[in-house]
Amino acid sequence: MLDMGFYDDIMKIISFMPSERQNLLFSATMPTKIRDLARKILHEPVEINIALSKPPAVLNRMHLSSTKRRRSRSSNGCSNHAT
After folding, report:
1. In angstroms, rounded to a whole number, what is the distance separating the alpha carbons of residues 70 and 80?
2. Which long-range contacts (CB under 8 A, 24 or more apart) does 5-13 make?
3. CB 34 within 8 Å of CB 27
4. Is residue 30 a contact partner of residue 42, using CB atoms and an 8 Å limit?
5. What is the DSSP letter of 4?
6. d(CA 11, CA 37)
7. Which of 63, 74, 20 lies closest to 42, judged by CA?
8. Of the candidates 63, 83, 64, which has an alpha carbon nearest to the alpha carbon of residue 73?
9. Is 71 helix (H, G, I), strand (E, B) or coil?
10. Are 38 and 51 in contact (CB under 8 A)?
11. What angle do CA 3, 10, 35 make, to 5 degrees?
């Protein structure tokens, strides 16, 4: 959202708020712009980091298949076809 130009709007709204207030800031990622914003508007912030998301070490795959075989009703009666 900051990339879309909301930074100035956020700062304007903050300027109307009392200096003693409670703010909560949540972000899935913490790029430099978000960190800079947090430093400007938060007082004594606490940052909580959750372990980095990594792809699974082992990828388990399971393929279930159900195939019925019928005898062909063709004239020769010799072939089987999967349906």
Report:
1. 6
2. 7/33, 7/37, 10/37, 10/41, 11/40, 11/41
3. yes
4. no
5. G
6. 9
7. 20
8. 83
9. strand
10. no
11. 60
Which amino acid would we find at residue 10?
I
Please tell me the number of Cα atoms within 13 Å of 83 on its side-chain side.
7
Residue 74 has pLDDT above 60, yes or no: no
What does each C-alpha distance from 23 to 45, 46, 71, 72, 78 come to in angstroms? 9, 11, 72, 73, 78
Confidence of residue 71 (pLDDT cuts 50, 70, 90): low
pLDDT tens, residue by residue, 43-57: 888 888 877 777 767
Taking a C-beta distance cutoff of 8 angstroms, is the pair 50, 29 a contact? no
